[in-house]
């Protein structure tokens, strides 16, 4: 449980000692999920208790210490930079106390509290001549500014084609996206596969039984705001179609590979950092329609030009 008296005591010590702070900092605060504590509340506590510290909730730059906040209901987490992270438990959801606790954690983690509480004693020796320091590696800056996100999607499907009955099945998808630290837009890719129950296809010369097993590779664009996430996919699809005559004399069986293009939109609501329900709608177009011959009389129809499916499932954050 969050000890309010301990937080208040440390907060008072932090405020009293901050006037002697020697090293200014640039801190950016980002709300990754939720708003308790809100970034602006943590900003107000830091600006009130520390001097020589520049705090903002705008877009981060390479010189900033990025602080991320996650509101997970009865608990909340804070990450400072790329290594320091802590989870707090507060079932009462006291947002003001949470903001103070986060401010104390930021000050201790970034060294502001130690610098304020114990300033160095004055030296009797003249300071040595300053020497230029080599610039920091740009690769470290890039790693600090980029955040990777890995997600697994499991869903139930329902859909079909204009000349086919509606069918259902299941799908699995693996996606990786990259975001700038504190940014809302990400870019990445996804790979998925599905298994669908057999459906009936209306042809000019009768009906056919169709089994479709699709897989795809797609480019993904992602937008996140608070608990909501929107994804847009665009890529290539390859499906195995197994077609056989249904209710026909001397039916035959035919297997084709259907290459097409895929587009999808999905909306996700993160209930916690790890789990979220989502809903999606996708369409797959087949530029090349294959001739079908499902009995001895020859060609009786073509494969559908478009497939449409909806999905409802669970998304898991693996990173």
Find the CATH topology of the largest domain. Answer: Porin
Strand order of the largest sheet: 6-7-8-10-11-12-13-16
Indicate the proportion of strand residues.
over 45%
Cα gyration radius (Å): 29 Å
Gap from first CA to last CA: 26 Å
Could you please describe the fold and organization of this structure?
With about 325 residues, the protein is α+β, with helices and mostly antiparallel strands. It has 2 domains: about 5-120; about 150-315, Porin (Beta Barrel), CATH 2.40.160. Helices cover about 15% and strands about 50% of the residues. It has 5 helices and 16 strands. It has helices spanning about 5-15, 40-50, 95-110, 110-115, 140-145; strands at about 25-35, 55, 65-70, 75-80, 85-90, 145-160, 165-180, 185-195, 200-205, 205-225, 230-245, 255-270, 275-285, 290, 300, 305-315. The strands form 3 sheets. It has an 8-stranded antiparallel β-barrel. A hairpin with a 3-residue loop joins strand 3 (about 65-70) and strand 4 (about 75-80). Helix 1 crosses helix 3 (about 95-110). The protein is elongated and about 100 Å long. Residues about 15-25 and about 115-120 have low confidence and may be disordered.
